Amino acid sequence: MWWLIPVGIGIGKLVYDYFSGQEIEARQRWESKSREVKKTVEEHRRNIEVNIQEVKKTVEEHRSNIEVHIQEVRDSYNYKLLTDIHFSSFIVADSAYQLLDDARSSLDSMVKIIMKTKNEKNELLIKLKELKTKKEKIPVLENLKLLNEMRQSLFDDKDKVKQQRDDLYNEVKRLNQQTNELKTFIRDRCGTKGIEWYDRLEERRRKKIAEGK
Amino acid sequence: MESENEKNQPSSEQKSSNTSRVGKIDKVDPAKNFNEATGNKWTSIFQKFNPLGTIADMYANTLAYKIETKRLEVEQKRIEEQAKITHNVLDKSFKLKMEELEQRRLALIGFYETVNRELERLHIERMTVLKMAEITTNHMLETKDIEEKRLLKEFATELTSQIPKFGANANESLKNLVQTLPQVPPAALIDIAN
Question: Are B68 and B118 members of one domain?
Answer without folding.
Answer: no
